[in-house]
Structures
1.
Amino acid sequence: MRFFSDNAAPVHPAVFAAMAEADGLDTAYDGDRWSKRLDGRLSDLFEASVRVLWVPTGTAANCLALAALCPPHGGVICHHDAHIQNDEGGAPEFYTHGAKLMLAGGEGAKLTPETIAALADGIANDVHRVQPHAVSITNATEYGLVYRPDEVAAIGALCRARGLRFHMDGARFANAVASAGCTPAEVTWRAGVEVLSFGFVKNGGMGAEALVFFDTDLADATLRRRKRAGLLLSKGRYLAAQILAMVEDDLWLDNGRAANAGAALIADAGGARLVHPAQANEVFLRVTPAEAAALRAQGFDFYDWGPGEARLVVSWDQREADIRPLADAIRALGAPA
Amino acid sequence: MRFFSDNAAPVHPAVFAAMAEADGLDTAYDGDRWSKRLDGRLSDLFEASVRVLWVPTGTAANCLALAALCPPHGGVICHHDAHIQNDEGGAPEFYTHGAKLMLAGGEGAKLTPETIAALADGIANDVHRVQPHAVSITNATEYGLVYRPDEVAAIGALCRARGLRFHMDGARFANAVASAGCTPAEVTWRAGVEVLSFGFVKNGGMGAEALVFFDTDLADATLRRRKRAGLLLSKGRYLAAQILAMVEDDLWLDNGRAANAGAALIADAGGARLVHPAQANEVFLRVTPAEAAALRAQGFDFYDWGPGEARLVVSWDQREADIRPLADAIRALGAPA
Amino acid sequence: MRFFSDNAAPVHPAVFAAMAEADGLDTAYDGDRWSKRLDGRLSDLFEASVRVLWVPTGTAANCLALAALCPPHGGVICHHDAHIQNDEGGAPEFYTHGAKLMLAGGEGAKLTPETIAALADGIANDVHRVQPHAVSITNATEYGLVYRPDEVAAIGALCRARGLRFHMDGARFANAVASAGCTPAEVTWRAGVEVLSFGFVKNGGMGAEALVFFDTDLADATLRRRKRAGLLLSKGRYLAAQILAMVEDDLWLDNGRAANAGAALIADAGGARLVHPAQANEVFLRVTPAEAAALRAQGFDFYDWGPGEARLVVSWDQREADIRPLADAIRALGAPA
Amino acid sequence: MRFFSDNAAPVHPAVFAAMAEADGLDTAYDGDRWSKRLDGRLSDLFEASVRVLWVPTGTAANCLALAALCPPHGGVICHHDAHIQNDEGGAPEFYTHGAKLMLAGGEGAKLTPETIAALADGIANDVHRVQPHAVSITNATEYGLVYRPDEVAAIGALCRARGLRFHMDGARFANAVASAGCTPAEVTWRAGVEVLSFGFVKNGGMGAEALVFFDTDLADATLRRRKRAGLLLSKGRYLAAQILAMVEDDLWLDNGRAANAGAALIADAGGARLVHPAQANEVFLRVTPAEAAALRAQGFDFYDWGPGEARLVVSWDQREADIRPLADAIRALGAPA
């Protein structure tokens, strides 16, 4: 009964089947017929002409995006709890050759035009200070909150006004879109996002994420950066096939919805214990060490998230029957201390 | 009838089966039980205590190795036809933060103690010149030649004498070992090799190579570099399972032998056309443009390799019946011009 | 009547004279007889066997130090108001190939063992988080505070206990030593500092700082990094001569004392307006925009330092008569609002 | 009697005088009135609107230029004997974040359109190969040859045709212009050069070179790179003053002519011993070890330059009387072996 991460979930059968179907000879790297279908397929999904590169990890997607948007001497504004700041082992600095992450605050790891502007305004425009060149937001956020299209658009407008480029880390993009009830287009390029890391691995994929360029001019140099980073797998067809399987018949969205629904069950049980509203597939609850121990004693596996908090993540493959026992156990803890 | 690259071959059924078997829940990254078996399993194979990291590409394996062996201000001696120089899109410079590849010559892309020493001796030991810190050889080479254990040991001895670190790019290590008829240990650590890129993708794998540290002190920092390069896949168990399947019952060696045997058939047909002895699974033949066109007209697919030369590569899955037609067609060309 | 920065002050006549004396032929780079005297001369000053490299800027000194102490995948703990974070245009990230500055708080830009430990304790020791490798403090701090030897030693002890390397940015080291009334040794290597950026440019030099290695093993690789950064001036004797002139007869200390004394006059006039105790040659005062304008109208030149604050810096060449008018003008403002 | 390098020569009195004149208070960095005169003064000299940045070394000038012209994933075509390849300790790779130097051959370290085109044509335009983005030539070359304006223009035309950027390392630009008898404009921007490293240090300066942008769009980002490299000296006025003194009344050109004239005396004596035509201030002679020893025994100091060759460099301050003895001693060696 694991709720520690959607990262560790199994692979969706349709993804496995697509990989098996791609087995056989084809051109190496991304010259195969699966890879060549990505641009078209995701252009349909996003209702825009996009360029798409498969990569094996979300970190790679994010960092190739940042390298495309920010020069080595520039900075990227992000939340101080952003994955790129805390969980990528310095990969953004590696890929950008040392660009600086500029850290803003805000509830639930969400940025707003106000927090971005305040941070940028505090940086004198002289040669001694690193200047911001880009903004990166995570949707759904690291605390399970979701940006509505209008919230993204407000940040996009600020970026445009100030000449900042705009990236969205969509490691849980499916959960965000499912939660917001919007189209993929509304919460990305229509709101000013120029590059999206479109995550599948937490949502049923095995090892393929899509780096989606709405600003297609950035794609060609990124092809070279991907190769230069050792990310151009010889047998790219197996990655492309995963992505194609995930977008077929909206599997990505169905999986996102399922995980969100599971999280809602837990959040409902959590009630007053909720640290943040549970808008996607992550639930953060206030629990004492004793309460956490009690839950674990019943077989529930999850991470502590700072003192007195637990993070519970629901994966695409967990159904109501898997989740009810946890919800019941949380309810049985009674009112929070 | 494709002979353009072993890179593009299908995945061995045992590899696919192992991935299917690994499907299910386990810890993310490399905390799973497949990843944890790698050190032990490859220590057995190499008759030494080794540390092993999976990575998705050979370029990543090579470049993490170089970064472990050479500081940014140093240089790596390699052949001017080495894969790291010509086919990795600048990845060695990216991973090492700008170390310099120092290019030596030599027949068939092979280095010798003499060519290495001559290059190193020509570099004044002052602060103005980048100093060599490491040597990297490819086995089998980019031209299908194989280093015998004593040849590697001679380079290893030179490295030890001069304080140079020693890397082997074994993208086709299976073909090399099968050809040399030696043990994996004899041609690596017993001969002074400190880090090996052990390739599986060209030999039946899907997207997993093993970076093998005989100098195990280098492994811990490399764990961090792997993460920092965006190479730490969330679901590492599917990579570890591939490698475990490849070394089970010597599948890697069987596949290497099979490909070598196929290349021998072609080489035999090539006769006087051979540019290099065909010791592994690659055959380089002198063919006129007209002859190349004639072969292609019969459905044989391969790369030109410089003017008047063709490269023919046999993959693990090609059997005698697949290869005979090519051998016959080459024979039918008659004596070379 | 300029109080905006000691950075812009003229060159001390003794420094100019030493450069003139060095004029003539000698070996290029750092092979000349002035450069060769640096190790010995500064070893005397520091009562220890040190290695010394001249560099043209304090940024270069700091960043070569950080590159010697922290790998690209590591982090350096410093204050969020540190010069390396805010005023070096991303140079630390450039020289370290993307190491992360880890920002702690604390009054007057001072770190303490407590703030360092709290920051480090918040970083899980896993591969996803960048790990701290070094601590860098500025003495005197960016707000004109001075670390006493025991304060440095407490940080040094923490560093030793945790395996962190320890750098001191001594852009205003003279002011710090003059203020603390200690020996150079007491506040550096005896307190655990391993590398010191010993500044002269703000204190009478023209364009030469000394990078002092107490851990002398770090010097050789730094010679290569200095060259690789384009910092190895052909005519290094003119830089070495500056440093030698500055340490001759304790000119550096006399200049530091003089500037501190001037700042004390201003601080005395500032009284209740002081934002921080004025322990070195910088004074930070609370002034309203109208008061700042009034001072400027009288010809005093200085920087605003955030809203409602002014920074007043005294240089080595300003004497009491130069400073009295400012002190009087501050007094004439009356009690702060 | 030193002929080992113009690098080590003393500083011209006019340069020293200009530095003394600049002594006194002014704005820090490059906000002072000397620095602000550079653009205008060199625009006059080059008969074009240029942007100029002072830097303390030629390596810094070259590498900032390359970083402005070539992305990290690109390559720079240069001669295999170029200073950037052999004598800058890996600085080009540091500043460009790992761009690859692509080495062409050619007599006397000179590139031609043919050698450049042949090298570029050998590089397949795919993602596996680093692509050339720029060409860098040295004028006068590392072997004392000079490019005529038409030779530069031929390379410039090739660059334009192929979309390659074009840099000139003018560490000995004065010697080149004096030798070619052309205007500075003719051999630079009129011939397609986009950035020039204009050297003064080998020609009477102390520690200031001018990085001249004919493509002025590149200057702003370079201001940030200069800072980020720790090259923005606080007291920039002393560097600007050096450059202004050097271009005043064509001092740079007079010094270049004087050194060239001295080299001509040596070359004349060298006769059949000349390895290369002596077109600037460097002379390369065939001498046996015994002959070299004989010259040294007479007090002449110079470098061996490969086996059986000596490099003799004349500096701006050496007059005929200083050089005659060497010329006579060379003549006295008799005919070469």
2.
Amino acid sequence: MRNYLFSMLSFKFLILACFLFVTTVYGQEEDNNSPNFIIIFADDLGYGDLGVFGNPSIKTPHLDKMSFEGQKWTNFYAAASVCTPSRAGLLTGRLPVRSGMASSTNRVLFPNSKNGLPASEITLAEQLKEAGYTTAAIGKWHLGHKEEFLPTNHGFDTYFGIPYSNDMDRLQGEAYKGYWKRPNDSIKTEHFNVPLLRGTEIVERPANQNNITKRYSDEAVTFINQQDETPFFLYLAHNLPHIPLFASEEFKGKSKRGLYGDVVEEIDNGVGKILDALKEKGLAENTIVVFTSDNGPWLPFKNNGGTAGLLRAGKGTTWEGGMRVPTLFWGPSILAPAVISDLGSTLDLFTTFCTMANTNIPTDRIIDGVDLTDVLLEGKPSPRKSVFYYRGSELFAARVGDYKAHFISQGAYGELGERVQHDLPLLFNVAFDASERFDIADAHPEILKEITELVFKHKSKLVRGKDQLVERE
Amino acid sequence: MRNYLFSMLSFKFLILACFLFVTTVYGQEEDNNSPNFIIIFADDLGYGDLGVFGNPSIKTPHLDKMSFEGQKWTNFYAAASVCTPSRAGLLTGRLPVRSGMASSTNRVLFPNSKNGLPASEITLAEQLKEAGYTTAAIGKWHLGHKEEFLPTNHGFDTYFGIPYSNDMDRLQGEAYKGYWKRPNDSIKTEHFNVPLLRGTEIVERPANQNNITKRYSDEAVTFINQQDETPFFLYLAHNLPHIPLFASEEFKGKSKRGLYGDVVEEIDNGVGKILDALKEKGLAENTIVVFTSDNGPWLPFKNNGGTAGLLRAGKGTTWEGGMRVPTLFWGPSILAPAVISDLGSTLDLFTTFCTMANTNIPTDRIIDGVDLTDVLLEGKPSPRKSVFYYRGSELFAARVGDYKAHFISQGAYGELGERVQHDLPLLFNVAFDASERFDIADAHPEILKEITELVFKHKSKLVRGKDQLVERE
């Protein structure tokens, strides 16, 4: 069965290789065969929140099917453990600390932040646009809400969405106080004065979040139906299941996991609509869809947050639960169906998609992403050998192969979690011990030495971008 | 898609219904169309130990495929949280406390135990044999090692396996001392003088456990290949991944999860061989295969035990991690592919398979199993509405619908775990809060009342069987 699969896949690889060759020869203008890319990015979705990642109560039939037909990545990491830096990493292929989007002062951007992703950064959208792609951003941005920082000024032809987190612009007073400790039905979308933008114009404020997930998915379907021969890149970043939680009437009360489950099931439903649209439009054979999350579950919010399954801790931390995210790749006639336990990162999407689209990787700056093409197309071993875990602008931990060293550790924001500097770093084999329960530093000084040297080398060469999160108005 | 599925399934249901009718009319002698049943029963496999149940390091491609083609049950329970009572429950469809196979003195049967499953109990094998089935037991028995209690005296035509746990008959002395705290490669199969039986004869002692998993799976394939028109029931109960852990050379070092992962991957490989044999023999269309576990992971053994994923605690406890087990049903042209989050229990296999085989359910005793036929064939709601959680012969907790009340709670055997009697029982919504983190007893007195009344009713009617585990020689 596996052999059959692989022979099938080598064949598909040949096909793709052929048009990559053709497009190389005839240049980008004639390149209409490059694969389309869709990134579906959930917000604060935990490692254990999908059926196929072990959730017993949340039903995600479309994502489960996506995993059986494509690739399920079990050791795939977000670029950071909170929103803004994670998104900067995904779109630039660079550790957020390089672009100044990871800060020692502020975790993320706020409605009164002065800056955003610098114009000097090159986004995946800009790269693909240059390669002739139609590009669209839908949903949460959180890389600067001022016009100059919005998606349409970072390589996206169009934008529809809320420019930052859905719990921002909070209306003060009784209606709002301690909302996340109150029953969900007492939390109204009107309590959050977040704007909904089309392009750079506010079209709705406060954005009606009750059906925002549905509207984002429908917008994606509309975009897909508008496509012609030109290859496209769609970046769909849901604002949910980040708190406050909202589901449309069709999904409210549907899940046994409560409102959080309703929200995830509505996102899953949207994924189904998107895959169906691709099939009906005849684009499924030449489109790669990625589903992943920006960071782990926001655990201090108890059952209004998700679960990291067997992984330790969640959002905001550099434990596995904070940065290892449930990730699926789908592309019926392109990908080698498999479960991939090798390393991958959202940083790699930049390099991988640029490679597949046959556009050049910038050489004037350090790109941290690696090319996963051969893993996706042929199930070959991943070229990614290490992961750096930053909290803000500070490196807390690093993974090399199966081993992860914690130099500093700390609990989640808003939880008891003192910062601990480890004189002897903690060492875990996170393939063997995914829950990070058994420190083996004493038994493996040589591995600790290897990781420490890699980190030293990384730090000594690191050029930090000017902190873009610090200035407020 | 779902609708299509269901119309397909109603059709399959019709077919099955037809031959159930035919067999009813023409009686059991002519019954050659009843489905074959295979139960594959792992030992101490945790809820989070399979790929499709969220394990990031253990690769189980065959079980994953089984779940996509069949039914994945996310709220399925073992009859008890340790070996002997769990197995008694599965084979009799009765709570082990009724047959005396759950005791207040001993957790399980030992090599010096005097008794076993009483002859007065009716096993699923006896029921199916009466309906004209060929029956075979392979692997761990643990319902009495004396001849009168062995499988061949409880309805099985044949038996091949180790009659109790693979860590029993321990050779004393240095070689053995504290073996589970020592490196796995220092633990030899010779340290455990367990017998391997064929029928009632010892054919090997100590049983070579290095390849026991492979030998059990191969024995199952041989049995399948010997079958003719007569329907059959195969009970394959692996001795592993119960400690001590052994894998054959082909699998040793294969998994990133260490020896525990190697063992689970070898079991998965065996499942693949069994499904292939069914297909090659043309039996897949009329065979139902169940894969499940006898209880949760044995956590005090650290990484030599498995993981319960997001569930709380493990083997020996009445927390979800102790009794909720990863369960798959497979039957390509019979079952309605689905993820089932309704309640099910190993107790139900007795009633369900007797119903499908069109043989009568005993009326002279209480049977605790319910008929899951309509859930399996049509994806209808499960008729099981409650679960009783016994520790030994004592009821610790009960679940009704989504709610579970703990009257007594305690940690795993061999772990710090004081017994706590709860004056006000703990109450959890285990659909919403599978990790049993948030006690909601104060908020829902009416639900607590309902569960308490059910338990009172259950206890007041309960007739306890004579303790079969207490007497030793």
3.
Amino acid sequence: MKIGFIGLGRMGAAMAANLVKAGHEVSLFNRSPGKGRSLVGLGAREATEVAGVCGGDAVVTMLADDDAASAIALIPGGLIDSLPKGSIHLSMSTISIALSRRLTQAHARAGQRYLAAPVFGRPDAAAAAKLFIVTAGDPATIEDCQPLFRAMGQRTFPVGTDPSAANLVKLSGNFLTASAIEALGEAVALIGKAGIDRRAYIEILTASIFNVPAYKTYGALIARGEFEPAAFAAPLGYKDIRLALAAAEGLRVPMPLASLLHDRFLRLIAQGGEHLDWSAIGALAAEDAGARQQAPTSSLSAAG
Amino acid sequence: MKIGFIGLGRMGAAMAANLVKAGHEVSLFNRSPGKGRSLVGLGAREATEVAGVCGGDAVVTMLADDDAASAIALIPGGLIDSLPKGSIHLSMSTISIALSRRLTQAHARAGQRYLAAPVFGRPDAAAAAKLFIVTAGDPATIEDCQPLFRAMGQRTFPVGTDPSAANLVKLSGNFLTASAIEALGEAVALIGKAGIDRRAYIEILTASIFNVPAYKTYGALIARGEFEPAAFAAPLGYKDIRLALAAAEGLRVPMPLASLLHDRFLRLIAQGGEHLDWSAIGALAAEDAGARQQAPTSSLSAAG
Amino acid sequence: MKIGFIGLGRMGAAMAANLVKAGHEVSLFNRSPGKGRSLVGLGAREATEVAGVCGGDAVVTMLADDDAASAIALIPGGLIDSLPKGSIHLSMSTISIALSRRLTQAHARAGQRYLAAPVFGRPDAAAAAKLFIVTAGDPATIEDCQPLFRAMGQRTFPVGTDPSAANLVKLSGNFLTASAIEALGEAVALIGKAGIDRRAYIEILTASIFNVPAYKTYGALIARGEFEPAAFAAPLGYKDIRLALAAAEGLRVPMPLASLLHDRFLRLIAQGGEHLDWSAIGALAAEDAGARQQAPTSSLSAAG
Amino acid sequence: MKIGFIGLGRMGAAMAANLVKAGHEVSLFNRSPGKGRSLVGLGAREATEVAGVCGGDAVVTMLADDDAASAIALIPGGLIDSLPKGSIHLSMSTISIALSRRLTQAHARAGQRYLAAPVFGRPDAAAAAKLFIVTAGDPATIEDCQPLFRAMGQRTFPVGTDPSAANLVKLSGNFLTASAIEALGEAVALIGKAGIDRRAYIEILTASIFNVPAYKTYGALIARGEFEPAAFAAPLGYKDIRLALAAAEGLRVPMPLASLLHDRFLRLIAQGGEHLDWSAIGALAAEDAGARQQAPTSSLSAAG
């Protein structure tokens, strides 16, 4: 297929590379230029404006947040203005329910097709084409995008015809992961203060009842107290919990654990942890327990 | 080996059966009699008092809580009184740190050997000899018990020489599982109120990022709102969170998520959910959201 | 002074009446007409549009929320468009920090003067001219408004030159009051389930250590389980906690008790308590304790 | 009346002095000797053992916690052993519901009379005979003790015939006060980070809607960040919240705000704040907000 790709961060660059490798004709755009160099080496073409990637079957967007996605899609000269009728906007960013609904309406008015297709997986999974993709929208459009999904992910889950449903599933999934991080943080603080080896503890749990990447990856980071470099930075985790809570407010669903996570992220950032991996909230329980050497601030000082 | 086995509930009966099948010579005791009948059919012998199972290499205990374990071990005519010097008490129950320490001291004074070896796994895992066993105590004693561990579990993890460390790991593991239940409950309440199919949602998550039994089992129960019959009843979950919090108080580790779980279990029980599976705390978020048909009370009325 | 008054709800009508009684020349405006009738009887004049009350020394606004305040002030033909240069907008509504800042800038650009002056007190205190007024802005303007403050309140507290500071003090005060309601709700649930008389309990506490209106008023409502009619409805309480949390996010201040209150209000509204007094969150603890007859839903059914 | 007084801490010494001044014949006992010297100067007599103060109409106990109260009352040679039949034990300590029940039964078996009569008020209120006294037990016994209550307090509130009811009211009152401290802590962190003067803020609130000693005293301590010397130390506050939660568990009443307070106290103590006033939990919100100079640890270092 002939596709545009907008957003060449760590995730986007890896996904775009897999599209090129799968034989698609890919043109690239990134707001800060020069990010596409290695992809050009693989055969992609780099454009200097949004309109330059809008001439094909579909445009994939993989952007950091609502602001970035709005700026690409909704401003004059953006996606809505530039995409041909019938062409597809495949929005893979983690954005709010509200923005997903605005995009649904704007694309419909412009005679374009819109799918939400956020992903689960960290940059290494993106590089290995092992992402899990959750998608929602018009079934025929989903069908048309299957070659793209196959090139980027290991499995795709359709969740209905309302695109924002896919965004909500994604946000709820990040809430579940952040909950696991908080739980691991408290558990590690507990057994650590009892003198049990933290790393051995995580190995036991993740070799037995929690044998999945989220517990392995974040459990190990918490056990070691190493939150730099950040594969997914604290402000992004904070953003996703805020978006989940915003959706929960709209639907009137009290989520006390999400509120706890909100306060943890806000504290982490207020205390100077903006550059740390989001799993650094898992060190706050140890800090509360007076075990300061395990707290993110130690990591901060080490970095200073 | 020649062993005694005390405590023939759903877990204990399955574990004892696997010991018999592995060729060990097993004598049984249960406070309420008649529970060992099917095991006697397999070749076990049933005793009418604790002393009657204490003549061999080891006695395994698998009891419901601290009270039951104290009653078996510490009263006159109990384990401490009856076990020969050098014989092993293999305590596989989920008990408190404090009781595990008392047993450690009492057995030491009596010249007996004591291992804590609590397990992860529900009754079906016990029946399939697929338990994960966490053990702590004297390394030579652990070595001597390997044939028993192999008969009952799929893998055994030693965590040091202080038996109570194994109990703390077990309690912290149940805390992690209860945390996952709460998180699932909130997430399902959220996506359910948005009109997304609850069961499909759980299938997506557990086929992708949370592909482990805890999320599958409890996610499905929450999605269906079915909390009876209870494989692990709410009061047992409440007990374990209380024991984790008691350990956390002793070690001075604030655990806000554990406090939230404590309040959830207390509410479930206060509202009449004592007979439900502990995953019924995962229905409270939907109740808070005004989606009463998903709340445990509906299950209660249905049962009434 | 010659003043306009916009917003004739229960609070505003009582405040405007006190201005008239103090001898000020008052013209009135309310979006839904007919609210000013009794005030006209006292000597006030009623206008049919915002501009009609903007010809004097000052315009007082007492509106329900940010939306209402924005609609009055910022739309074409609103306050900013209609107020003469040098005239004062005395904004007494409980609005967000963000809106207060926007108004500060808009009035400054238009050469008008702006004071924030939110109040503490329920409608009975407004009627008795016993409000506590917190104000911030230009000191000379505060001085000019003293005759108005004296007519409406028992005491006025200046908190600096940035108007939004007064709004933050007001929001934080409502947070403190909501916190007292939650605490009273939990305490009453506890002693009530122990069989202690709830009303006698509140009388003891408010005759001794908590001898202030907030504890007396809300303690009595909780003890009696009577939350209708609402003097200050749940959605207004929810709004103020959300505004406090929005300010806290902006300033990066985690507030776990405010998060708990947020979830309590959201639950009360999700469960159908929109028409109840905000102190009905104080019945949720009893509901959690299984004492359903004390819960707001009983009041709901009684009302149905 | 002829009375014994046991427990000469800051509270007890002031209360005993008021009994002497009111003309009662007072004999004193304190476990660590020498505490009664100034009272002896007023005319009291000091005994060297519990039995030495048990010969009169009543014995007042004012002890730090359950352990101290048990040691005085329940051990051989203690109060139960020494008090004549018909004599009164007036227990004014803040103790658990469970211990109060044990004492009720033990005194009844011994033919003695028992009243619970815990107090509200800090040492300065005790010295000024301005305590509020909550009492429960046999009405005739309460009547007999009125001269003592009048000598020590400004007002006495009977709450029924079951002594433990008075203890529960006292514990719930301390929970309410700790809740106010937490709320003040979060509010002060919020307005402080916005640049509003903390002391002026507390003056505004306590001159208006929260014009009571608890808000004045603790608000001022939090605004100044001064938590030493402790008039009521953090471990005592922690103890009371734990006793309230223990009662709540027994009655099955989930109290999320009490759980939050529990975690705050545990954190304060874990981080080295054992010697600080209990209102130091009101500095944790500012610490979470990254405003470390306001945190108790700064006070700690200043003291170090």
